[in-house]
Every structure is written in C-alpha cells, then in structure tokens.
Design goal:
mainly alpha, 10 helices
Length: 265
Amino acid sequence: MNFNKRSLITLGMLAIIAAIAYYFFTEKGITYIWHWERIPEMLFYYGPKSADDPMPRLRMGVLMIGFMLTLKISLSSIFFGIIIGTIVGIARLSHEPVTRRLAHAYVELIRNTPLLVQIYIIYFFVGSMLRLSAFAAGTAALSIFAGAYVGEIVRAGIQSIHKGQMEAARSLGMTYAHAMRHVILPQAFKRIIPPLAGQFISLIKDSSLVSVIALADLMFQGQQAVARTYYAFEVYFTVAFLYLVMTFTLSMATQYLEMRLAISD
C-alpha cells in the first residue's frame, strides 16, 4: 500500500470517528442548538477590514489569523529547537566534563519544569530586560523547551551509530567535527525522524499555551470568539480541527520523508 492510499484511509477513519462522535453528541447527548453558519465568517469573509481599509475583498477571519500565527510560531520554534537540540545533543556526548554537565543541567532543568512557568519567566523576566515582543518571547520559550527534548533525541540517535563509524572516519584523516557532520549525523538523522516528528507534533499543540501572554494565536482567537458569540462547541471544535490539520500534515510529511530516505538507502 503506497503513501497516498494510507493517507486517504487515515483521513477516512478520522472522518468516521468524528461523524460517530457528532451523532452521539447530538442525538444521544445534551440538547443544543448548533450555529455552524457563524463559523465560515471566522475563517474567511468578504468585506472591508476597517475604516482605514474600506475596500471589500476576501479576508481572513479571526480563527484563520490565529491559525497563521500558530503556524508561524510553531515553525519558528521547530527551526530553532532543531538547532538548539543538535548542539545540546552533541554537547551531551562531549569529552569535556564542563560542557557535558552544562548540557545535562539544561536538559534536566527544562524537562522537569512546566512549560507554562517557562513562558511566564521568559516573557515577564527575560522579555522585560531584553524588551522582547510577545511573539519573540513565546518563540524563545517554545524553542528552549523543544531544544531539551530534541537534544536527548539527537544524543540517542548518535549513540545508536556504531563507534566503528567514527573510528573509520577519523582513520581517514577527518577531524571530529567533520566526521560528526558528514558521517555520524546524516545516519543518526534517519533514525530519529519518528521521535522528532512526535516531539514537534506535541510542540504544535503546546504552542496553545502562549495565549496566556496575550499572543493572538489560534487558541487565543478561539477564546475571544467564544467570549463574543457564546458558541463554545462550534468554535472549539473548529479550533481542534485546525490543530489537527497542522499536526496531521506534519505527520504525513515525516512519513513521506522516511519513505524517500528509505528509497535512497
């Protein structure tokens, strides 16, 4: 079964589960009058934006604006998380005791404290000193948080490569850095794609916590929409679906990447 067929089957199963849940909620559950007709205008609408921009045109609604910001902060955090995690993963295997212990201390500190507390500290303490915007502070918090977990994944991936690979590369005259870059890390990367995908999917969902610092992401916009309309079920179901779109797309992309790398092997 090829990649496209598996994707269609997965989407079909998700649609069936959603339909069953919706049936039991409406037919067997509480009595509720649905207002799904209000949701499309929260995604896209045609009209003027404000008095300063009165030209009618197709515009993004509040939920789609939040979706784009969540996507932006998630991709930025993933990018910086990979950089931080790679450095930390290599440092965890360093022969220098100080470097190794500092990397270990960073990993343990970040993994054993709540992400919400880290966001507050970076936004109110570090952000105030460095005059960071809410977006910069939220991205920094998520990147630092992801970097600790990615670092452990990278460390495990490097250690899974036989030591003979490094010895062979060094015997050919490569430096440690060149051997790590051209021999060890490419092989380790192929092995750590699945755990990295799981970590980044969790990061996308965890990005909803940045709403506590008034960053207008998808969750924040959803909360504001509920406060204005009182259509909690419709809005939160839509928010959940938009998160599903992001995480499912990332999952399918990593599966495709795995297949491509397997073919190259």
